[in-house]
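For the sake of transparency, this paper describes our internal protein records without simplification. Because each token names a local backbone shape, the row as a whole describes the fold. One such record is reproduced below, unchanged from the form in which we store it.
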Amino acid sequence: MTSIGVVGAGVGGLHLSLLLQKRGIPVRLYADRTPEEMRASPRLANTAGHWPNTRSRERELGIAHWDDAIRPIRELNVTVTGDLSARFTAPLELGPMAVDYRITMPRILEDFIERGGDVAYGTITAEQLEELSERHDLVVVSSGRGTMTELFPKIEERSPYQRPQRVLQVSVVDGVVGNAEALNYELVPGVGEVVLFPFHAADGENHTTLYMSAVADGPLPALLNADVAGSDGREALDRVFRTIVQEHFPASSALFDWDAFATVGPEYDIAGALTPTVRRPYAQLGNGRWVLALGDVHTVCDPLLGQGANSASASAFIVGDAVVEDHLAFDELWCRRVADRMWQRSGAAVVFTNELLRVPPAPAVVTLLAAGSVSQDVADYVASFFDVPNTAWNALASPERAEAAVQEVGGEQVLQGVRQALAGMAAA
């Protein structure tokens, strides 16, 4: 019977392992940490929100343990501040769910173990993959750094940025008093973004994520201070957030009671930057066998739009389906077919995110944001991009496609109004 080895116990690795387990396919999960070690991690891994399609997959896997435990996100509020001014709200029937991975990942790993799952603990290096490939019919790599990542060649034409486009300062905070059950997204072109959303933390309490994304060549990076992230003294970090939000993001600032504002603690801070990168998700080892990459090993998205974990989950199900449908040989042909299917989903997330990183904003983005501010139908359409990024991939591919989307969703009158408004801005 087919045997699968899965390296990495993140979202992609765990979802794939649980799916294969559910389908009766022998799988061994190689995890670098035990559940107890995951819970004891001193720093926040991310603040990823799982959108409805990912949550549906989690229900299918029987791991949706937190649906009723967290503060629900009921709407998406988008504000564009500056020369391009736009604002709209889209209700969310089932919004994203953001729970500390120090809660979710160990519990899901324990689910796998309790159901009879086979787990081996310890760090796996690229040099060990050949040995693993002799034990399994297929090895899937869903976690890795350094030489592990370098095993999979970068695809230059799908990786338009050669350096980070945003510098991040993120923390879990208290003091948000407005739209506390919303995902609030404020964009200031040329400056950056602030995103606020509910977050269920490792302390068991509901707080808010304050996600600050600074344009790398804009005015904010000089005001950020990565050195204070994770420090016991909170005053310096609190001051960074307070100063930048109050001075540069007026819509977000209005949502805070600044007298009550405080970052929660050093274990809830993130600072850094990522270069968006796409790699070919398969490689041949020295023994002739092939390995497949999944999740961040395949595509690294800037976390601005929270697409990474959702892409990893979707790709895990694509791989799981492919294992069931065709297990005759896990050769180059099989890998290429799976890579094409994964790119149709993860590529959409990459393009969606990369378009939102552009400075100045891409014309297609401007058109859709402007239309969303005057048409509720278009606002709802734009909100759907987060859960179904293929829709964004279609609409953001060109200015003409964006206008066609506005016309189809909002109608001819909305399109003509947006054209006139944008022409007036250009002439001013």
Remarks:
- The mean pLDDT is 95.
